[in-house]
Amino acid sequence: MVKRNESETSEVELVRRIRRWASPAPAASLVLGIGDDCAIYRPRGSREDLLFTTDLLIEDVHFRRATHRAEDVGWKCLARGLSDIAAMGGAPRFCLVSLTVPGWADTRWVNGFYRGLLRLAQRTGTALAGGDLARTDKVTCDIVVCGAVPRGRALRRDGARAGDAIYVSGRLGGSAMGLAQGSGAAWKRHLRPEPRLALGRFIREELRATAAMDLSDGLSLDLRRMCEASGLRAEIVIPPICLGGNLDQGLHGGEDYELLFTVPSRVRVPRAFEGLPLTRIGTMFRGKAEVELYGRPLEALGWDHFAMS
Amino acid sequence: MVKRNESETSEVELVRRIRRWASPAPAASLVLGIGDDCAIYRPRGSREDLLFTTDLLIEDVHFRRATHRAEDVGWKCLARGLSDIAAMGGAPRFCLVSLTVPGWADTRWVNGFYRGLLRLAQRTGTALAGGDLARTDKVTCDIVVCGAVPRGRALRRDGARAGDAIYVSGRLGGSAMGLAQGSGAAWKRHLRPEPRLALGRFIREELRATAAMDLSDGLSLDLRRMCEASGLRAEIVIPPICLGGNLDQGLHGGEDYELLFTVPSRVRVPRAFEGLPLTRIGTMFRGKAEVELYGRPLEALGWDHFAMS
Questions:
Q1: In this structure, are residues A16 and A232 in contact, taking their beta carbons and an 8 Å threshold?
Q2: Alpha-carbon gap: B66 to the closest alpha carbon of chain A (Å)
Q3: Which of A122, A246, B208, B260 has minimal Cβ neighbours within 10 Å of its Cβ?
């Protein structure tokens, strides 16, 4: 869903403020706190770091009752969290699901929700470890997914270096186009995004990616976030756009759940991974944290959930 | 908040169903899944087990805008999760907070919410590791708290044995009484519950408790849950009730966040821990999983959030 928002007290601002409040410094075992796709926790004496991500999926914000079946909502709820795990190169371990449902959502709807969620969970080896349930006016699902990476190996968005090549997987804008059309292959893609878990591990293990994140809010906004985290400027060309999609959808459309990553320029990146195209779209440079498309600043118009009044 | 509900498709039923769906068996590293206060995860090679709990706090279900300040809501949101960690004898590590707010909740409200939450977080050594934010019609907070215990040492509700003595901490019914009164010390207790973290570690380390859980939904319902998990029958007397409270509040009132635990009958339990009374209220026996008060079955009338239509 593409929404335009340039409010100053946007999600970025609020996250910044909360991060400031959350200091003094978190526990030593918390390697990375607020601001990346996942928090990173290092269990005592363990060979693996644990990744944690949390995502809200809300009726009439992220989906509509009339157009999204219960199974689709359950699937998407988990897929969004898994995508964050993929972005850090992790393997999923378990999830916790909190669900609130209004009166219209009967047992059948709740069953469908869990059926969709568990189908993806079983396919990806994610255990359902717990959750909470309550009644409210709208369907609200909050999911926490835990993943694991070998100690110290998580891909972060702050690791890009000047000179690194910028890549994206797949073709962008498909989800936004699907949402606009409301049917067909692109719509199905919007309903059932595929978290790029295998790709995430591949770019971490084989390509030695320096930074990565998933494209959940649109390239223009997400790449700017990577620039801000890494303290770099990105110069890009037009990214690969899905068949039938337009430039606007490709640059700003959210919910593609493809991966955005950087690798040192000397690294040979294959043209595709398991049939999914990997395309170089630009280069990182020293400079002010912003994105330039053919030398002109690209406004970050992606999806920004939060704009406090 | 004391609510009466005897619907057959209650939370217990739904949890049972979801647990069934969640099989085939979860990952080996997930020691305990759905059904206890926390899920237990065993990181590879680690000396500690990690505990995870998730809790929803919803406007007009768990609190009201008119009577609960933002700081109180933030505090309570974390306190509920910490209470689950306490029940397993754990030490808190970090939390993840997802918050949805309606139009009336301005920046000041959100600030207040985080101020209340972070005050308790800092006092208990809980890092705020991340979260999500969105707009919706009602305030909904979903919190995940992670705690840790030495490997294999978590207190569970399924560990009670026939002959064990049953104990509760504190005096019960205070929160229900506070809610009914809307002011005074009991009301403050309702607003700002104190998770019994130090007590949880004490009963695990010093008393070698066999089972424990926190009293969130009322003694009658929570003790029945412990009976069901342990496959035992409980015989109890009237528990200690808060000053001014009635029997109904003491037996069925929710949100006291005291600890309910069992110890082998030979264990000498002190009368108080750090000023908090520890009172023996009964004994566990072999038999059908139910609670008897002076030999008569005690109906489980505690707070049951979920009753599917």
A1: no
A2: 18
A3: B208
ipTM of the complex model: 0.80
B111 contacts in chain A (CB < 8 Å):
17
**Backbone dihedral region for residue A289 (phi beyond 0: left; psi -120 to 50: alpha; all else: beta):** beta
Q: Which residue, chain included where needed, has tokens 């591949």?
A: A202
Q: How many whole angstroms separate alpha carbon B158 and alpha carbon A115?
A: 28
Does the CB of A129 have a partner CB in chain B at under 8 Å?
yes
Answer whether CATH 3.90.650.10 is correct for domain B165-297. yes
Sheet architecture: strand order including B140-150: B30-32, B39-41, B48-58, B140-150, B91-101, B127-135
- Residues of A with Cβ-Cβ distance to B20 under 8 angstroms: none
- Here the tokens at position B251 are 């037996």
Is A52–B96 a contact, with Cβ atoms under 8 angstroms apart? Answer: yes
Residues 6+ apart with CB under 8 A from B24: A122
Q: What angle do CA B220, B222, B225 make, to 5 degrees?
A: 110
CATH architecture of A36-150: 2-Layer Sandwich (3.30)
Tell me if chain A has a CB within 8 Å of the CB of B1: no
- Establish if A50 touches chain B: CB-CB under 8 angstroms: yes
What is the reported pTM?
0.85
DSSP string across chain A: -------TTBHHHHHHHHHHHH-S---TTEEE-TTSSSEEE--TT-SEEEEEEEEEEEBTTTB-TTTS-HHHHHHHHHHHHHHHHHHTT-EEEEEEEEEEE-TT--HHHHHHHHHHHHHHHHHHT-EEEEEEEEE-SS-EEEEEEEEEEETT----TT---TT-EEEEES-BTHHHHHHHH-SHHHHHHHHS----HHHHHHHHHTS--SEEEE-SS-HHHHHHHHHHHHTEEEEE-PPPB-TT--HHHHHH------EEEEE-TTS---SEETTEEEEEEEEEEESSS-EEETTEEPP--S----B--
Please indicate whether, in this complex, the C-beta atoms of A134 and B306 are within 8 angstroms of each other.
Answer: yes
Closest-CA residue of B relative to A40 is B129
Q: What are the pLDDT digits (tens) for B3-52? A: 333 343 455 566 666 666 665 444 567 777 666 778 899 988 889 999 99
Give me the residue label for tokens 């186009």: A177
B130 touches chain A (CB under 8 A): yes
Residues of chain B neighbouring A133 (CB-CB closer than 8 A) = 11, 14-15, 56, 305-306
Q: In what order do the strands lie in the sheet with A48-58?
A: A30-32, A39-41, A48-58, A140-150, A91-101, A127-135
With 60 as the cut, is the pLDDT of residue A5 above it? no
Beta-carbon pairs below 8 A across chains A and B: 225
Cβ atoms of residues B243 and B171 within 8 Å = yes
A212-270 pLDDT, tens per residue? 999 999 999 999 999 999 999 999 999 999 999 999 999 999 999 999 999 999 999 99
**Coil, strand, or helix at residue B101?**
strand
For A56, the closest chain B residue by CA position comes to: B132
Name the residue ranges covered by the structural domains of chain B: 36-150, 165-297
For the segment A156-180, the average pLDDT, to the nearest whole number, is: 95
